């Protein structure tokens, strides 16, 4: 498996994110220090360490829905099976997710955050189990880190457009806490427009509401 590592010292920073109710039209700068995330491409197994200056972009989030649901069950073009069942209500966020396949032999995670914008969602999970197909020396991601994915719900029914997922996932250090609002699902810094892919397999299902 071909992988690329950029060796960068990750500062141990405590991040404070100020969450507030706001609409997609309201822009609010996030005043924090840069953070470092591991970005892994699910299609070609390449990964790199990327530094994100969250002060340099605006947090764009729809008004918080206290009853969000993100369910998914699909196959990626890289033959990973993704299953997610996250639900958020006034009592908190609940649920689990998993990825299995050639890169991730198995990754399991508990629900940590959801950010919905239109028909897309970013989900974040706290990794509870991690086994990679090839874990290179120096790759620091482990149990206790956060994993982030983005997906798109294009409606129900066989005649509707195919649901989509983004081909890259991010891993963040525990010290940064959940970052779904920073990695909102339309932000081009994270979710490049040309890396949204149709879900594969008999389920072909993403549900966001």
Main β-sheet: number of strands, strand sense, barrel status? 12 strands, antiparallel
Q: Kindly, what is the distance between the CA atoms of the first and last residues, rounded to a whole number of angstroms?
A: 37 Å
- Assign the structural class, choosing from mainly alpha, mainly beta, alpha/beta, alpha+beta, or little secondary structure: mainly beta
Order of helices and strands: EEEEEEEEEEEEEE
- How much of the sequence lies in strands comes to over 45%
User: What form results from the Cα inertia axes?
Assistant: globular
Return Rg in Å.
16 Å
Integer count of domains = 1
Instruction: Please give the count of helices.
Output: 0
Strand tally is 14
Report the uncertain regions.
Answer: 1-31
Proportion in helices: under 10%
Mean pLDDT comes to 76
At a glance:
With 209 residues, the chain is mainly β.
Which secondary structure elements does this structure contain, and how are they paired or packed?
Layout: E1 28-29, E2 35-41, E3 47-52, E4 58-59, E5 69-75, E6 81-89, E7 92-100, E8 104-117, E9 120-132, E10 146-152, E11 164-166, E12 168-172, E13 196-198, E14 200-208
Antiparallel strand pairs: 1-4, 2-3, 2-12, 5-6, 5-14, 6-7, 7-8, 8-9, 9-10, 10-11, 10-12, 11-13
What brief labels describe this structure?
single chain; about 210 residues; 12-stranded antiparallel beta sheet; two-stranded antiparallel sheet
Describe the structure.
The N terminus is likely disordered. The strands form 2 sheets. Strands 2, 3, 5, 6, 7, 8, 9, 10, 11, 12, 13 and 14 form a 12-stranded antiparallel beta sheet that branches. The protein has no helices and 14 strands. The protein is mostly beta strands and 209 residues long. The chain has one domain. β5 and β6 form a beta hairpin.
């Amino acid at each position: 498996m071909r992988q690329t590592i950029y060796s960068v010292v990750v500062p141990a920073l405590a991040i404070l994110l100020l969450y507030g109710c706001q609409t997609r039209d309201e822009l609010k700068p996030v005043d924090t220090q840069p953070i470092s995330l591991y970005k892994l491409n699910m299609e070609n197994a390449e990964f790199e360490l990327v530094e994100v200056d969250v002060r340099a972009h605006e947090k764009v989030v729809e008004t918080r829905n206290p009853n969000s649901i993100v369910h998914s069950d699909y196959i990626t073009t890289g033959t990973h099976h993704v299953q997610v069942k996250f639900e958020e209500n006034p009592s908190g966020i609940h649920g689990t997710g998993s990825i299995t396949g050639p890169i991730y032999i198995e990754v399991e995670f508990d629900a940590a955050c959801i950010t919905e914008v239109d028909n897309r969602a970013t989900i974040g999970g706290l990794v509870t189990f991690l086994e990679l197909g090839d874990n290179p020396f120096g790759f620091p991601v482990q149990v206790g880190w956060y994993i982030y994915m983005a997906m798109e719900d294009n409606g129900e029914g066989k005649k509707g457009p195919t649901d989509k997922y983004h081909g890259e996932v991010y891993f963040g250090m525990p010290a940064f806490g959940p970052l779904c609002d920073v990695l909102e699902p339309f932000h081009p810094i994270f979710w490049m427009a040309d890396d949204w892919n149709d879900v594969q397999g008999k389920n072909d299902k993403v549900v966001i509401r």
